[in-house]
Amino acid sequence: MTMRVLAAMSGGVDSAVAAARAAEAGHEVTGVHMALSSNPKSYRTGARGCCTLEDSRDARRAADVIGIPFYVWDLAERFDRDVVQDFVDEYAAGRTPNPCLRCNEKIKFAALLDRALALGFDAVCTGHYARLADGVLRRGVDEGKDQSYVLAVCTSEQLAHAMFPLGDTTKADIRAEAERRGLQVADKPDSHDVCFISDGDTRAFLADRLGTAPGPIVDGSGEVVGEHEGAYAYTVGQRKGLRIGRPAADGRPRYVLDISPVTNTVTVGPREALDVDEIVGERPVWLAPPPSGPFGCRVQLRAHGEVYDCVAEPDGDRVRLTLRTPARGVAKGQAAVLYDGDRVLGSATIALTSRIPA
C-alpha cells in the first residue's frame, strides 16, 4: 500500500538511507530536517550527525539525490522545553536521564508525528535500527546498533504511524548502500554523546544552568570523605572525578552509590554495594496488555547495556521487577525496557532500586 511518508532526516547516513528505501518502496516521501536549536552553533559541530547547520545541509543534499521534497521545521522551542530542560531538571532531582529516549518520546513521535498526521501524512520514517511489523517492535538485527531500547517509550498508537526501514540490515551494509546510492553522507561519522552539549562536558553544562551548590560526599557510615560543587554532576556507578581527598580504608576505589538532592549529599562506597536485584518502575508504557499477575521476561536497564532475566509484576502506574541475578550501577531516571526474546513488551522509568536481603 502506497503511503504519504514524512522522513525525518538528521543529516546522517542512517536517516538518508531510510528515506531512500521508503521512496524506493513506492511511497510518496517528503524529507524534513528538525531544527532543534535557535542557535545551532551551540550544539555539536564537526559532522556529528545531529542538530548542526552542517547537518541541515547534508540532509538537503541527500534529499536532492533521492529526488524528494525537503523542508526544515523549527522545533527548537519544543526541544528546549521537553528535552534540554527535562535533562537539567532530572539531574537536579538526583536522577540520570536519557535525552535520546526523551527526544523520541516528545519530539520525533509526538511533536513531529502530530504535525505530520495533521498535514495528512500516514507515517513518519526514521533511521532507527529496530524492526516493526504488525505493531510488534523488535530489536534490530545489528546487535551493536539496536535502538529498540530508546524506542520503547513510544505507544502502540505512535508505532502504528512509524516506519523503521533499517532494522533488518547491519550498519556496515547501510554505509555500503549509501555509497551505491551516491549519498555523500556514506562515510559521515556517527553522532555520539549529548547533541546539545557542544563540548561534551556535561558537568560544566549543568553547572552553567544550576549554579554551584557545595555539599558533602559521605561513605556508607555517614562519614564525610570529600566535598562536591553540585550533586547534580554525579551519577550512580560513577568512579572517576569524585574528588575525594583520601583513599578508602581498604585501599579500594569508591563509586557513587546514591545522590540525594534533598540533603545535597553524594554517597560513595565499594563496587559491590552497587548491586541491586529489585527495581520499581513508574509510568509504564505497554506495547501489549500485560498479564494480570507476575510474569517472566528479560529487562535492559540502559542503552546498549546488559540484559537480565527477571519477574515483572504490573501494579497500576508502576511495575516491580525482581532480577534473578543482581545488576550493578542501576541509575534512577533511566528506562527499564522489558523483552520477550527480541520483542519489546514495554518500558518504565526507574524510580527505586534496592537489594533483597539474603
Structure commentary:
The chain has 358 residues and is an alpha/beta fold. The protein folds into three domains: 4-187, HUPs (Rossmann fold, 3-Layer(aba) Sandwich); 212-269, Adenine nucleotide alpha hydrolases-like domains (SH3 type barrels); 274-354, Translation factors (Elongation Factor Tu (Ef-tu), domain 3). Helix content is 25%, strand content 30%. The chain is built from eight helices and 17 strands. α1 (13-24) crosses α7 and α3 runs antiparallel to α4 (99-118). It is globular and about 65 Å long. It starts with a strand and ends with a strand. Keywords: ATP-binding, Cytoplasm, Disulfide bond, Methyltransferase, Nucleotide-binding, RNA-binding, Transferase, tRNA processing, tRNA-binding. Its main location: cytoplasm. This is tRNA-specific 2-thiouridylase MnmA. Residues 145-147 are annotated as: Interaction with tRNA.
